[in-house]
Amino acid sequence: MLVEAPGYEPLARIAEGVGARVVCFERPSGERFSLDPDRIARAMTPRTRVVAVSNLHNPSGVRADAASLQAAARVAESRGAILLVDEVYAPFDALVDDGGVFRGSARHLAPNIVAVSSLTKCYGLGAQRVGWLLGPTDIVARAGDAMTASCGMLPLVHAQLGLHAFTRIVMLAGRARAWMAGKRARVARWVEAEGLTWSAPTEGLFGLITVPGAGDLIATIERAAQEREVLVAAGSFFGVPEGFRLAWSASDEALDEGLGRLAEALRVARG
What we know:
This protein is α/β, with parallel strands linked by helices. It has 2 domains: 2-173, Type I PLP-dependent aspartate aminotransferase-like (Major domain) (Aspartate Aminotransferase, domain 2), CATH 3.40.640.10; 182-269, Aspartate Aminotransferase, domain 1. Helices cover 40% and strands 15% of the residues. The protein is built from 9 helices and 10 strands. It has helices spanning 9-17, 37-43, 66-78, 137-151, 156-167, 169-180, 183-193, 218-228, 252-269, and strands spanning 2-5, 23-26, 50-54, 82-86, 113-118, 131-134, 197-198, 206-210, 233-234, 243-247. It has a 6-stranded mixed β-sheet with strand order 2-1-3-4-5-6, with helices on both faces. The mean pLDDT is 93.
């Protein structure tokens, strides 16, 4: 299995947990974390069966366009592999229509693309853990068997909650848009004022911030959580120890307060 780097650690760890050999291909910060099919091709072997990517890219928040995804799918297909696209953050901003529907799924781009998504992130239903998989019939059937083997028969109320959410998807999408309005620009101004480097995403609700020369920020992040009650996702979780993923899904007041506390913690760490 090929997995992007930097990347969301569970994409690699879950595969390793079921016995797969995981190899990484780079999405370099110097190339704005672009999805380069040539890098995938160079990393593939005759044994590669899955190429896993996230879109929006987690942790940078950068979106891979349809052409790049199609090219990556062709590379995977040349070796008999599938392209797995994690789309839990994909339906953001203008890509969700007035009906609350995300019509830009990568599943439509190539027959060997498998897309996974959920109502957890973009629609704000984190506690419900309602998700889905789109792909070829045989893969979907095998995934269903795997779910039953690992989780047993899930309660039907779980599905009923999901169906009810879809009847209110317009409201959920509108709520998310309104909640996120203006916050990305606010974070961008904070990053510039603090002299930091970041992925500068143009959509979504998070970005990757790096502190060049700071080394592993785990201790700083843990102290900030314990002493200042401000928490960010450690970059080491994504393979970027000198950075962190910052999300702006809090209220305006909490975001401003959190940024202020985080700035104090980083100034202490930088001396």
